[in-house]
Specification:
Elements lengths: L4 H35 L6 H6 L11 H11 L6 H8 L4 E2 L3 E9 L2 E9 L5 E8 L1
Helix pairs in contact: 1-3
Length: about 130
């Protein structure tokens, strides 16, 4: 019972392509849901958000609330002042952007960036890594 080498030559590329396709699909599925999986563990709680501001260097405590905050609370058109009243003093402040540290999530430091238009109205928010 000897295997024909030509069978292996034709089967190997097909198997490699199938495995590559499966790995690619799994990766992009994870990438599409990463934000919700990593940052969607907890509902936003203003008191906890303020308390966790002091512990951002080691843990992802604020990160657990970031997805809910981004998807359900930070609405387009909200004023910059209203966002700062809700979330407190930002870690970084620019003309049209404020940023809140989320802590070390998935071995990388993350932040919630909130973008405003020239009138100080929220236009977008995103979770970014440093």
């Amino acid at each position: 019972m000897t295997d024909n080498p030509s069978k292996w030559i034709t089967r190997f590329p097909i198997a490699f392509a199938a495995i590559s396709l499966i790995v690619t699909i799994v990766f992009f599925a994870w990438w599409a849901m990463k934000e919700q999986v990593v940052f969607g563990n907890e509902k936003f709680d203003q008191v906890k958000w303020m308390q966790y501001a002091a512990t951002i260097q080691t843990e992802c405590k604020r990160g657990d609330m970031a997805y809910d905050l981004k998807k359900h609370i930070l609405a387009r058109g909200v004023s910059r002042e209203a966002v700062m009243v809700l979330l407190g003093r930002p870690s970084l402040e620019d003309n049209n952007t404020i940023e809140y540290d989320l802590g070390k999530c998935m071995h990388v430091y993350h932040a919630l960036r909130i973008y405003f238009d020239e009138h100080g109205r929220l236009i977008n928010s995103q979770i970014s890594s440093h």
